[in-house]
Amino acid sequence: MGNQKQRWTADEEEALLAGIAKHGPGKWKNILQDPDFAPFLTHRSNIDLKDKWQNLSVSTSAQGSRDKSRAPKVKAIVDSLPNTPNSAPAASRAHNVTTDTVEGDPSNSIWEECS
Prior knowledge:
This protein is mainly α.
C-alpha cells in the first residue's frame, strides 16, 4: 500500500527550501526536474515536496515546535519569498473568526459565522 515514509534528511530539506526560493511554492515538478536539486530529491515525489512544505510552513508559526533549531532558518526562507497567494503559510490564510460571543447564547455561535 504505497511507499514507506522516509525521514527527510537535512540535504533534502535544504534542497526543497532552495528550490522554493528559486521556483516558488507550488512548482514542485519544476523543483524535482531542476538539476541543482534533483540529485537530493531522487526519492521524493511532488506530493512529498508539497506535504513537507506545508509541514515546514505550519511549524514556523506553531507554538511549541518540536524542532526549534530549524524554525528560524525556515522562517527566514519563507519571509524572503515573494508574497503570492500560494506562498503564505496555511495559518496566515485561515479564516478569521471573531470570538465576540455571549456564553450560553446559541445565536452567537462561532459555527454560524463560518457557514
